[in-house]
Amino acid sequence: EVQLVESGGGLVQPGGSLRLSCTASGFTFDDYAIGWFRQAPGKEREGVSCISSKEGNTDYSDSVKGRFTISTNGARNTVYLQMNSLKPEDTAVYYCAASLSGRDYYPVCPTLYAYGMDIWGKGTLVTVSS
Q: What is the rounded (10 degree) CA torsion for 90, 52, 32, 2?
């Protein structure tokens, strides 16, 4: 079965860090671009970061640029989102998603989003609070 599973969410104080993982089963990221999204209570889902399949091109939303870093492991079956200097407004359910048609997107995440995401994980909750 093809699926994505997120992990690493939890409760953290403002200014703290978390690392989210997005692990694929049934496929690798060699042919897919990966995006991280989040949805806060009462708000629409927003794109946070993305990485292309082969070139590893990365991009970030303005709200997380300089604080979050997206990367992959050597086996290319896990994508990480390192989140530093967390703020209360980062509180949300975080989702990862994979896109086949957008795998070589360039240069920014909205270009990837326009292709559509094919596989979604179920999300992991991040709560930033003192």
A: -30
